[in-house]
Amino acid sequence: MTGGTWSYDGSLDGLLVLAHRAYCEGEPPDAVANALAADGELFALLGPAPLRGAPFKGSSDQSPSELGRAAESASAELRAFSGGLFDTILRIWMSEEALELPLFRLCAIAGHRGTDALADHGNPDLRAVSRASRRVGREIDRLSGLARFSPGPGGLFVAALEPDANVIAALLPHFARRFGSEDFALVDARRRLALARRGGLFESATGEEALAFLPERTGAGDEDVALWGRYFKAAENPARRNAELQRRLMPARYWRYLPEMGGAGGA
Amino acid sequence: MYSPFMELGEKLELLAASARYDASCASSGSSRAPSGGLGAGSPAGVCHSWTGDGRCVSLLKVLYSNSCRKDCAYCANRASADIARASFGVEELVRLTIGFYRRNYIEGLFLSSGIFADPDIVMERLIEVARVLRERERFGGYIHLKAIPGCGDRLLGKAGLYADRLSANIELPTASSLARLAPQKSGAEILGAMRFMDQADAESKEDMRRNRGRRRAPPRFAPAGQSTQLVVGASPDDDRTIVRLAGALYDRLRLRRVYYSAFVPVSSDPRLPVLRGPPLLREHRLYQADWLMRFYGFKSEEILDEGEPDLATDIDPKTAWALRHPEFFPLDIDKAEYSELLRAPGVGVTGAGRIVSTRRAGRVRPEDLPRMGIVMKRARWFLASGGRPLFSVGAGGSPSMLEARRLRLLLADSTGDSTATSARAAPVPQLEFEFS
User: Fold this and answer.
1) B141 to chain A: which residues are within 8 Å by CB?
2) Chain A residues closer than 8 Å to B20 by CB
3) Digit-coded pLDDT (tens) for B28-79
4) Does B427 touch chain A if contact means CB atoms closer than 8 Å?
5) Is this prediction's ipTM beyond 0.95?
6) Chain A contact present for B6, CB below 8 A
7) Tens digit of pLDDT for each residue in A119-154?
């Protein structure tokens, strides 16, 4: 199946299977058709690994379970390939940008020329894919620090996010380590997705079910929020005031999460 | 020293404001195993906010107490300062750390203190906070404890078992400046604490190596190592002295970080210089020089020599070095080693890495350099391709422009800082810290 138009369902599993195919065959397609995007649905049903197993729309030629199994085996092989190829594929999926074609071209080059081929920074495909991958990576890094948790239903600590890219599944391992044995949830209010850990078990939700994780109240009257606000003001050294630097390092679009900057603080 | 009648928020404001002169807020470099409770170390560190002065907030940075017996001229919390005093209780600090951590406001706790009692007693209070966090709360987040100068080695050893990082502030660049501005502090005590921590770190690594694979490995001593801080601009010491001191601390005591804190005028003590504001540009240049030592393979003596005691204010230290060494350039992007490329202004660690990796796949084209993260405005004067200097490619210049004085003007930063040099009176010979 080389050249021609490759079609897939817009799922991560579908992307992994086709990326692996390009890698193995050393030949990319001429065009890519994303069935979900064509339907006007944007990746709402399926996230990366933690959500796998949730109801999702399969590709036209494989049943969901077949696709899942194929993606698992493709992942194992792609992971073993150095040069960060597997992580790049995940990030391109999270970016929701139409970069499948340059990604498959890179996979094809990697397949027949090895790791060094992915170091050619003169390659426009690599530049486009790297740019999107870096953007997603930056958002994951930023939200690792700037997500704010508030007490939600049932004592669960919940972070309400509206990320540019579909990144909450990538944030999940970080917060699972942070929270240790405690329960927590991440809600992507924009895509109406939620990932949670309750009683040691991971769960996922979409649509209204996802939004039900959101805390009912905002930070008003919350003692931790008030103490944090006082700490934040006191920690600033007025003799070194540099609001421009603050804004550059912490862009205003993230302030909505931050109670210290007047945002809702995870609620 | 506990202040039971002060409301927690008020105390927090006071003791955070007292701690804001400590520059360190890093939460990186720890390899602590998960505790099973709340919290985990993140090797790369995480910034959770940025204050209005543009500094990253990663840790809850507070003093245990801002009461202090010492009267260091440059310190906002000195004994003679007319400020409100307060002390936390252990449980208050535990409550704040856990509460803030759960909200994802912080990675952990940075705890220092004024010397309100015998150094051993102060150190014991700091250790107790860390002990309760680790043992009772099973807190796995980051803890940075200040090593109180003059406390016993046994306590430092204990602190290192709970803390990810320990730091003893060297305070000033020379022993004579310390004697003049902080006569109650002893350089020997500070360096003694640093040596002890270095030794404990080495022994702990050896223990880990010997016990590798065993079920119950000994706890690692301060896995994120030690750091220090010194005040810049409160004493007449030149930049060369500071850079050499930092170089020695990195090389001989294996410090992870040296922090430079621009002196903020806090009193009218006649021993202090009169400044319009903190010498921020000087501090910035020192951090750039520090970066060259930590990531770019520069030795401290290369950055400044006897003829040049201070870092330039108009250009960064790497550009200054490059202009002093025209014989090193231009570097050919087709052949230069990674370590050589790092010495070219406008080429960073990422850019140098990309040039080398791209060469493995094919030839590096000069027009691709900007997309690799190379800052051509600077780099074009120091790089060549196919034997031709890049500045001669296209219409941008002529070989005569490589003349150092004109090039310096072209490469000068647009910012200036009149406070940067006014911090120092005429340099006087200083007795440096002895590392032998």
Assistant:
1) 178
2) 234-237
3) 888 777 778 899 887 888 999 999 999 999 999 999 999 999 999 999 999 9
4) no
5) no
6) no
7) 777 789 998 999 999 999 999 999 999 999 999 888
Span of A28-32, A184-188, B137-141 with lowest mean pLDDT: A28-32
Residue B377 has pLDDT above 60, yes or no: yes
- The CA distance from A265 to A146, in Å, is 9
| Contact yes or no for B278 and A240 at CB 8 A | yes
Q: Decide if A120 touches B, using CB distance below 8 A.
A: yes
B300-325 confidence digits (pLDDT tens): 999 998 888 999 999 999 999 999 99
Over residues B146-201, the pLDDT tens digits come to 999 999 999 999 999 999 999 999 999 999 999 999 999 999 999 999 999 999 99
Cα–Cα distance for residue pair B417/B398, rounded to 1 Å: 32
Check A249 against B54: CB less than 8 A apart. Answer: yes
